[in-house]
Design a protein that fits this description.
single chain; 256 residues; mainly alpha; Growth Hormone, Chain: A; 2 domains; 74% helix; 0% strand
């Protein structure tokens, strides 16, 4: 809360001193928790420091944070743009978002066989395809500055993003957790869940700020300024995926 609250409220309040103090307190609290647990030698620490000594796990944690941050932030500003900027009703906007599932559901059965053959390459491609889908949506939105955008120009980008999402999200957690020793599996799972929740909140704060900072120029201009943050998050995810094991450790012994 100390980190996310000033990020959400800071812009509208002119970045007051209390916001910067909250950020400092939040970061210090996380550091203090980690140091305290390490000194006490807790068997089941909330933040097991040994996990962060593993580059693959640390990279996976960042992927988890960026993935959920990019998705939560983009869906928020895109939905606002559809309804307030393009005149879609809530039902129409919701139906258009079904295009995500239209890409994800048919692609899901192909994920596991491809992961067995290609390993982490599937995650890299998933992140890049998702970035490409969001770029498509941004491109089509940018051309709607002077007129209403129908659903059909936007749908292919959303379908593409859905395909990328499913190729990234299905193997991601298994691949990350495979890098953690069995005695730290509980702490690793909890840390990933925390990264997911924190990433979602952080994405809403950062991408939302980027959007609302440009609404004076129109909601379409605001969307085209905010969307690159989500696109960049998935490009960075693709790069970080290269630090993961080539295949989930344990599924293919000897590969890393």
């Amino acid at each position: 809360m100390a980190i996310v609250l000033p990020l959400v409220q800071g812009r509208s309040n002119g970045w007051p001193l209390w916001g910067w103090l909250c950020l400092a307190v939040g970061v210090a609290a996380i550091a203090a928790l980690t140091v305290s647990e390490k000194r006490r030698g807790l068997e089941h620490a909330l933040l097991p420091t040994d996990l962060f000594k593993r580059p693959a796990f640390s990279a996976g944690l960042l992927i988890q944070l960026l993935f959920h941050g990019g998705m939560s932030g983009f869906v928020l500003v895109f939905t606002i743009w559809l309804q307030s900027g393009q005149g879609y009703t809530p039902t129409q906007a919701g139906l258009l978002m079904v295009a995500f599932s239209a890409g994800a559901i048919p692609a899901a059965p192909a994920v596991d066989p491809l992961v067995a053959q290609l390993g982490r390459t599937v995650l890299v491609l998933g992140a890049l395809v998702m970035a490409g889908g969001l770029f498509w949506v941004r491109h089509e939105a940018q051309h709607s500055a002077q007129h209403h955008t129908g659903a059909w120009p936007l749908a292919p980008g959303l379908v593409l993003a859905g395909v990328g999402l499913i190729f990234l999200v299905i193997p991601l957690v298994d691949t990350i957790l495979s890098t953690a020793p069995s005695d730290l599996a509980g702490g690793a799972s909890g840390t990933l869940s925390t990264a997911q929740q924190f990433g979602g909140a952080l994405g809403v704060a950062v991408i939302g700020n980027a959007f609302f900072s440009h609404t004076a120029k129109g909601l379409t201009a605001a969307l085209t300024k905010a969307a690159p943050w989500a696109i960049a998050a998935y490009v960075l995810c693709a790069a970080l995926c290269l630090a993961l094991p080539r295949r989930a450790v344990g599924n293919e012994p000897g590969t890393a």
